[in-house]
Amino acid sequence: MTLTAGKDAVTFKSFGVDLAGDLYLPEGFDPSKKYKAIVGASPFPQVKDQIPATYGPEMAARGFIYLGFNYLGMGESPALPGEHKQSRYMFRLIENTWDAVSYLGALPFVDEIYGLGVCQGGAIIASAAVTDHRIKKIAMVSGMMAADAFQWTDREAAHQQITAANAAKQKMYETGAPIYVAPFGLNDEMSREEFIAAAAYPEMAGESYDYYGRDGVKGPKAVPSFTNMHIADQAMQSMFSLSEHYADKIVQPALVVYSATAFTAPCSTQFVEKLTNDHEVLAFDEFSHVDFYYKPEAVKASTDAVAAFFDK
């Protein structure tokens, strides 16, 4: 395969199938030279045409190689035989990430490999790095690393989610047919007004819709491979938050970028409290959690910081 500067469609093996990826190469790319490479990890339940398509070009413009990809069963990446699409399970996300690192490590023009995760991607990268020291540095933006408090504060609600997920898993096993749900109450057909009216936190719902909604900048109309619907047993896996419990085992230098005013701020701050490695923290008051997904000023602030950290 001939690779050129810009975005190149690639595949790599994980769980015995080909995962679909986009490899972003810097301007003037020369395969005889060595480059620092980044494996990207995206928010739940995104595909590679969302966060990776935003951060990939930005990091390539700063001289890095960036790999964004669809996890097993997401977007153009197939599910395993007998399984269903939209089954983004945390343990598999970590293993897919390890295989992405292996793919980058096999490229002759790749030097050091770093990890960059946004939202749930922060938890994926932090978890993957615990035992994968091929990843030399990690950066997490609006990360959901310390997600226990976020997910388990209301235990009754958490157990309701788990009960529903258990029932769905049993039915899917017995029938062989998938059951899909909208994990955040947002389906692919709702208007902004409908979603906000039904939401417990209207402001949060508004910014989420502006990105993920039917008419959002990276919603199902803008990104045909994306859907807000997800396999119904998701809560059985997403309620695990591994990285915060292994934070003190992470040895790689780490950068944490987050919004100090966002409702998700504790997912970063509580994680940082548990770190024992060399780490840097950059908090912004002027940006929201979702601003780091696509707002130009927020993306520039985060990618500038990540590039400076990885270049040290």
Topology as a string of helices (H) and strands (E): EEEHEHEHEHHEHHEHEHEHH
For this structure, the CATH topology of one domain is Rossmann fold
Overall, the morphology is globular
Strand arrangement, largest sheet? 1-2-4-3-5-6-9-10
Global structural class: alpha/beta
Look at the structure and give the CATH class of one domain.
Alpha Beta
Task: Give me the oligomer status.
Answer: single chain
Average pLDDT? 96
Low-confidence sequence ranges: none
CATH homologous superfamily designation of one domain: Alpha/Beta hydrolase fold, catalytic domain
Number of DSSP strands? 10
InterPro entries: AB_hydrolase_fold, Polyketide_trans_af380
Protein name: Alpha/beta hydrolase
